[in-house]
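Figure 2 data, in text form.
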Amino acid sequence: MKIVADTNTFLAVALNEPEKDWLIQTTDGHDLIAPAVLPYEIGNALSSLVRRKVLAATQLGAAWDAAAAIPVELAAVDARASLLLAGHFRIYAYDAYFLQCSLESKCPLLTLDGGMKRVAKQLNITLVE
């Protein structure tokens, strides 16, 4: 089965967050898919962690490499439809790309974001929990 994986799941694994083991067990044997914007969002999140002094600049390369080592299919999504979702639910466009990816691929969504889970339920997207 394919699972749409949100950026925060890649970061949790790459940065050895407490959810790492659960995420690996949950996705074992499944193929991951994400909107093609994923690498850019990972980069943005990592640079934000450096700006907030959560991550040292010297750790960026290793964190990127760990996230990039996770196999994932990058999918094109309808940007206009994503933007309309973002406007309707008053969420970030980046979150809407993942929701739209789930809708278009008809695949369940894996996210650690409570707000995104709430919107996914309203859209009848199956969540991996």
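Caption note: The chain has seven helices and four strands.
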